[in-house]
């Protein structure tokens, strides 16, 4: 099972302690527009899914990220 917090931390090359549900888009320098697309690619690869463009645009926090992934049936810890 995918450890979502670790996956996001590795994608942004930051310590996992920075990845909380309160973290928002542009809340850290690494989560800029390029970082966002890297995150989307990492999530799609890890969960073998294709995110809808509305979900890509709407994913503006870690909490929203979790909810969007659940909508797709993704299982993570």
Task: Please give a structural write-up.
It is a single chain. The chain has 4 helices and no strands. It has 77 residues and is mostly helical.
Helix-strand blueprint:
Layout: H1 4-12, H2 33-47, H3 53-58, H4 62-71
Helix pairs in contact: 1-2
Can I get a quick summary?
With 77 residues, the chain is mainly α.
User: What's the Cα radius of gyration?
Assistant: 11 Å
Order of helices and strands: HHHH
Helix percent band: 40-55%
| Chain-averaged pLDDT | 98
Note poorly predicted spans. none
Count the DSSP helices: 4
- Biggest sheet, in brief? none
Question: From the helix content, strand content and strand pairing, which structural class follows?
Answer: mainly alpha
Percent of sequence in beta strands: under 5%
How many beta strands in the DSSP annotation? 0
What characteristic shape results from the CA principal axes? globular
Distance between the termini: 7 Å
Keywords:
77 residues, mainly alpha, 4 helices, globular
